[in-house]
């Protein structure tokens, strides 16, 4: 979503399957449980968790460890400094959002970016948006919000495929071939003209 919006000179269509969007809903809801894990087991320190993770013979044994690594990776993408310093968007000892860091994350939210990149989205010949109705990360809500934002900036509804299918977040790879087939048909029509 983001790459296509920022580089419409390279992309004329894209598909998103349960893509990260609507960060206030999909990410913010995870942070309190992560803060508890950091507080209870690592003295409220992300660095202490990362030291444990690096040293563990078998990492990811705790159900929240994967999510802690995931949020750290997102932080590296959304809120790191030029020198490589990574800033997580919440206080690890309390779970409180850090507004200036959280705003850096929100700047990359596809729902917000859609409002800022209407011209790029209107130039797309095909946009496929889908997610499972039972997505554990609430990315079905993100897909709905992104769809509304896309249509809201004036993209022709005939150029957009949107579906909330019966499913969760995982095991949705079967959707890829459906999207590719639809994209090929939409983009091939333009090529023949």
Describe the structure.
InterPro entries: AB_hydrolase_fold. This protein has 193 residues and is mainly α. The chain folds into two domains: 2-22 and 109-192, Alpha/Beta hydrolase fold, catalytic domain (Rossmann fold, 3-Layer(aba) Sandwich), CATH 3.40.50.1820; 26-106, no CATH class. It contains ten helices and three strands, in the order H-E-H-H-H-H-H-H-H-E-H-E-H. A three-stranded parallel sheet has the order 1-2-3, with helices on both faces. Strand 2 (126-132), helix 9 (139-152) and strand 3 form a beta-alpha-beta unit. The longest helix has 19 residues, at 174-192.
Describe the structure concisely:
The protein is built from 10 helices and 3 strands, in the order αβαααααααβαβα. It has helices spanning about 1-5, 25, 30-40, 45-55, 65-80, 100-105, 110-115, 120, 140-150, 175-190; strands spanning about 15, 125-130, 160-165.
């Amino acid at each position: 979503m983001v790459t296509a919006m920022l580089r419409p000179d390279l992309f004329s269509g894209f598909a998103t399957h349960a893509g990260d969007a609507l960060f206030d809903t999909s990410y913010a809801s995870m942070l309190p449980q992560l803060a508890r894990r950091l507080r209870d087991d690592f003295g409220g320190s992300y660095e202490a968790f990362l030291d444990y993770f690096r040293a563990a013979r078998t990492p990811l044994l705790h159900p929240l460890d994967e999510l802690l690594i995931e949020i750290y990776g997102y932080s590296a993408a959304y809120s790191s400094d030029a020198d490589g310093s990574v800033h997580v968007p919440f206080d690890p000892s309390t779970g409180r959002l850090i507004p200036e860091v959280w705003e850096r994350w929100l700047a990359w939210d596809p729902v917000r970016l859609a409002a800022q990149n209407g011209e790029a989205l209107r130039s797309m010949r095909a946009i496929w948006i889908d997610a499972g109705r039972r997505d554990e990360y609430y990315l079905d809500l993100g897909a709905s919000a992104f769809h509304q934002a896309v249509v809201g900036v004036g993209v022709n509804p005939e150029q957009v495929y949107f579906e909330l299918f019966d499913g969760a977040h995982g095991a949705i790879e079967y959707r890829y071939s459906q999207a590719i087939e639809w994209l090929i048909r939409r983009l091939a029509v333009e090529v023949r003209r």
